[in-house]
Amino acid sequence: MSLLSRAPLDALEQWAARGVPAHTWLRKPETGLVMVRGRAGASGARFNLGEMTLTRCALRLVSGEAGVAYVQGRSARHAELAALADGMLQAPASAAAVQHELIDSLQEQFDQRRHRQQSHAQATRVEFFTLVRGES
């Protein structure tokens, strides 16, 4: 779900161009706001950080599996394609193909991006050290 919600829409469109099964809507894509909460120091009291735009939908494939998606932003198409992929991942007939064609390639793209960002951050890293002074 995380990969599908963060996937570029172009990648999902390319995957969907190969053909996706028919589906019926359980909940058509709808956009709204959600409150994002945080914690001071990751362990302190919760506080409201702000609002974020979110699009969600749910659908049922003709084979009976249900797919759901929650994506950041206002893209109804992104939510629909993510929900289709979620439903197809639950279907025994299509799960392996979707895993191989879509999920594995998305994971590789995200891993490469993370590695590039870490390499860039590592290049600008500064090492601080303290010299110990002896008492005279």
How does this model look, in words?
A hairpin with a 4-residue loop joins strand 2 (46-61) and strand 3. The chain has helices spanning 2-6, 9-16, 76-90, 95-123; strands at residues 23-39, 46-61, 66-72. By secondary structure, the chain is α+β, with helices and mostly antiparallel strands. Strands 1-2-3 form a three-stranded antiparallel sheet. Helices cover 42% and strands 29% of the residues.
Topology:
Layout lengths: L1 H5 L2 H8 L6 E17 L6 E16 L4 E7 L3 H15 L4 H29 L13
Antiparallel strand pairs: 1-2, 2-3
Helix pairs in contact: 2-3, 3-4
Query: Major sheet: order of its strands?
Result: 1-2-3
So what's the overall shape?
elongated
Tell me the structural class.
alpha+beta
Number of helices: 4
In short:
The protein has four helices and three strands.
Entry keywords:
136 residues, alpha+beta, three-stranded antiparallel sheet, 4 helices, 3 strands, 29% strand
